[in-house]
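In the previous chapter we treated chains in isolation. Here, by contrast, the input contains two separate entities that must be folded as one system, with a combined length of 357 residues.
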Amino acid sequence: MAEEVDNNDADLLEQFRNESTRNYAFHQLVTKYQKRVYWQVRRIVIDHDDSNDVVQNVFIKVWKNLHNFKEASRLYTWLYRIAVNESLTFLKQKRAPLFISFEKVEYGLSRKLIDDNYFKGEEIEKKLQQAILTLPAKQRIVFNMKYFDDMKYDEMSQVLDTSVGALKASYHHAVKKIEEFLKKN
Amino acid sequence: MSYQRVVMNREKDMFNENLNEETPLLNSIPKRNPFVVPEGYFDALPALIMDKCRESEKGATQPVADKIFWLFRPQWMITAFIFVAGFSLFLREGNKDTLSYETIAANIPDSVIMENLQNNIDYVDVNSLEEATQNSGNMPSLQPAQDTTNNKQIINYLINNNVDASDIENEL
């Protein structure tokens, strides 16, 4: 498993553990992974400002815990897991203070797409995003990983700590639901 | 091992092919990223994150003096003041019910006391009243009427209280 770690990542980790090169190594790590982390988060929380907050929280967590990274998985898999958890925590916090239901939070996100200055897709792409928002949060993540990133089920399994079979079933159901939504709308 | 991999790939392809057939609308949508970011966002993000990381470390090692100072911030002082004032007011209002009888009696006008005594004069034991006032220590003991008491004052009292001369004569 250790050989899965990218050589470049291994160098970065070693530099991070050295006090004198820690800041430089972390800066390099952020530069390398910021876009991938950002887009994973953005597809979950939709709004750019919210995504910005979540991404910062993700990397602060990485900063604090990178010395604990066991290198049993790829560094990006570990980053991705933190990003998914932080995004889900963000959505939960959106609901918690006002006891808002899941549907209302996702409906709010869906409405944001209509006037969002940072959404440049066509109408059908907007409909697709709205369809995706009707899915439960975890199913939405599975769909995004598979459909947009073409992520392998093995890797998704490590990130989401879910069996490959369950992920395949989840993706299958997600696709069906989206197709139904697009037909109705 | 390679045979198994081939079988798995075939299953995967069949899975995808079936799905593609069942979802024509989804397949017709371009698979691209419709979201955008503000210009220069990713150029600035690493530096912003580094600043946040340094701040988070600073927060963890905040000196004790700073923490104590934070407790005495004006907002907290005002809140504490309001709480103390409100609590004091509450205690004061609550204590109204436990005022002493002497305090209550001191606030009753003399006219009301006189009226009450006159209405209930038959039930008042003068001796016990005198003892009570002597024991209280706060009130002067009853003194016999002074010779200097003005006749006019006595007459006025008698008139004001509708005392008949025949009543006095009977008492004597």
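The mean pLDDT of chain A is 88. Chain A touches chain B at residues 23, 26-27, 30-31, 34-35, 38-39, 42-43, 48, 52, 55-56, 59-60, 63-64, 118-122, 124-126, 128-129, 147-148, 168, 172, 175-176, 178-179, 182-183 (CB under 8 Å). Compare these points with the single-chain example from earlier in the chapter.
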